[in-house]
Amino acid sequence: MVAVWATAILGVKGTGVPTVPKALVKEITLVNSFWKSAKNLSPNVASPAATLVKKLKSVFDKAGFKNVHSDNIHLDIWKKFLFIATVSGIGAITRSVFGVMREDKNIRDLLYQTANEIKAVANAKGIPLENKHIEMAIAIVDRMEYNTTASMQRDFMEGKPSELQNFNGYI
Predict the structure, then answer these.
(1) Which DSSP string do the residues of 39-106 spell out, in sequence order?
(2) Rounded CA gap, 42 and 151, in Å?
(3) Smallest Cα–Cα separation from 137: which of 101, 169, 166, 170?
(4) Exposure b/e, 77-100, CB count within 10 A at least 16 = b
(5) Maximum alpha-carbon separation in the chain
(6) What is the distance in angstroms between the CA of the first residue and the CA of the last residue of the chain?
(7) Cβ–Cβ < 8 Å for 30, 39
(8) Which residue in 26, 55, 96, 158 has its CB near the most CB atoms, within 10 A?
(9) Which CA distances in Å does 113 have to 34, 83, 105?
């Protein structure tokens, strides 16, 4: 889908199947499955594909798609990963709703321990994940309604396939 959009919108030419330059494919990531909530993320604004990314962002803006131009795609991915792996992972193994995660000191400590482990792995990989990112992830739990659960947690609790092993197993 991105290749078709980029070809039609940006005038990228290809033969046969529409293609996108490798540099552009490498630098554009669309997150979430719905276009209305898609984020356009790219690394460094000085990259050769920056002009194409800015054009694509402009088209998304005009179409009303929620999108963000990222200056550090790797950090943004790890911030999202930090939240998902921490909250969904702890929610799945404790089967606790967000309200319980807020109130139970032991579970809250597990959230912080997990988040700090993820931060350590990210930092070892050169990703500047910081304590403020951990606090931002935990703040989401604190703002949500008491009985909220994460989708990966629900899948795990219902015996459906989940990303738990992929995400938390990676760490």
Answers:
(1) EEE-S-TTSTTHHHHHHHHHHHHHHT------S-HHHHHHHHHHHIIIIIHHHHHHT--HHHHHH-HH
(2) 26
(3) 101
(4) bbbebbbbbbbbbbbbebebbbee
(5) 59
(6) 31
(7) yes
(8) 96
(9) 32, 13, 12
As given in the structure block, the two tokens for residue 9 are 């919108």
**What does the DSSP 8-state code read for residue 159?**
T
Going by C-alpha positions, the residue among 64, 59, 63 that lies closest to residue 8 is 59
- The Cα–Cα gap between 3 and 8 comes to 8
Q: How far apart are CA 55 and CA 163, in angstroms?
A: 33
- Alpha carbons 142 and 23: distance in angstroms, whole number: 39
